[in-house]
Amino acid sequence: MTPLIKPIKWEENKRSLRWLCNLTCLFLLILAGCNFPQELPVGLPDSPQRQTEISHILNPAELTPPEEGTAPPLEVPEAAAEFPPIEFGEGTITYTIQQGDTLPGLAARFDVPPELIQSSTPLSTSGLLPIGMQVGIPSTLADTLPHHSTIFPDSEVTYGPSVGGFNAARFAREAGGFLASYSETVKGQTLTGPEILYLVALESSTNPRLLLAFLEYRSGWVLGFPSGAASDKFPIGYGADDTGLYNELMITAKLLAQGFYGWRDGSLTELTFSGGGSGRLSPALNAGSASLMKLFASLYNQPSWEKQLIDPGEFLLFYQDMFGSYWERAMQVEPYLLATATPPDLVLPFSIGETWSLTGGPHTTWQTGTPYGALDFAPVTGEPPCAASAWWATAAAPGLVVRSERGVVALDLDGDGDEGTGWVLIYLHMADGGRAEVNTWLELDQQVGHPSCVGGSASGTHLHFARKFNGEWLGVEEPFPLLLSGWQVVAGERRYEGFLIKADQIVSSRPDGSSGSSIIREE
Length: 523
What we know:
Elements: H1 10-24, H2 54-57, H3 78-81, E1 92-96, H4 103-110, E2 134-138, H5 168-175, H6 178-181, E3 183-186, E4 189-192, H7 193-204, H8 208-219, H9 245-265, E5 270-272, E6 278-280, H10 287-297, H11 302-309, H12 314-323, H13 326-333, E7 355-364, E8 372-379, E9 393-394, E10 399-405, E11 408-412, E12 423-428, E13 441-442, E14 447-449, E15 463-469, E16 472-473, E17 483-484, E18 487-491, E19 498-502, E20 505-508, E21 518-520
Helix pairs in contact: 5-7, 7-9, 8-12, 9-10, 10-11
């Protein structure tokens, strides 16, 4: 069979190919930014109409958050415990590897070249580092924000293992506050307040407890009836162009993602506070703490930020009163992101013998802030734009359909029915007709749905394909590289640019599906 494209030796031409992709890419989608207000009121409204107290619903254990530096240590795998303590030279910080740490991420956060990070054994240059290992890092940062200890677990930010059987919509309904009676039109469908909150949590993979607590902290909507709630277009207070609960919660999810995944990859090292001022984050924090700090910095000036999160930590006290000890929950599920984790074997998500185009290289998996982990594939059929294609997107691995709505199919590969655990594949823009139903087990290559423009923003029929692991969105490259039928996915310099590489063959992403973007699944 004639090769689809001229063979090229990839290792010798990677830089020039990325440059070529920059020139030939016709357009990139630009996401709108949000203008945040200056200082906003915080805490619960002092309304005489407030009808429900937290303890009447939850009766949580009477616990207080740990003081700085006393957060309970999370258990680490036995392998990590094998690394003996090690002493490094003067001017070097001893740092203990946390879950999700990579050498490039550490180097960026500590502002040092990766090769200057010392360890007793060689460190992976791209994969996850073993939790519990001690490394020596040159001390180069003179000024950081005055907080150096973790304040919030990773697992309380994402829709991961700690969510378990918690039903956010039912909680909101039983709370009986204004949120339970609220409704809004979202993407052409009228949804109740509890449904909106659950939708945002699940689709953005954000912990619903955190969304509920933050909404209540800012507005009082969950447990009470604050004065003026019915006319409040900005219950959280962002004041963005788009109004309503859905958009306010999506902005919250975006800010949390920017903090969480930015900390993971080292791109977030500094906070800018509402009203002005900035500061560098301590490099010893974890992703969960950085995520919460990023969120609060968008709404508070630095003194208020410290009051909410550090001294006395008003939001953390509030969160614990509302949902019990977050550290105890974390100890039950963390670490959930290990260096020993192995990605599943995946095939291209369409049938053997069909020709599809890579119309979108690596780009955000879901909302702004999530990693560049999604690919767009369009069937080459000559059908009208945005028509539901006659061709099918297919299961890239066997799994259980745990969600099938609003153009999304979520395929749970461990089959436990929990989208927050294990490996999950996300198919977006699946047409309503023929979409695989919830609780259906799909074998490899079975039909998932017809690509279309349903769900999200789309200018043409295609499949948006992405992965999650234990609730975390994943990029296409290290530490969990994406391979599809032996094709390695490589990101370009900018989002939507990128390549599929297999031996000496290269497929380039092109939004118009032009020559060089076509790929045939051969096996």
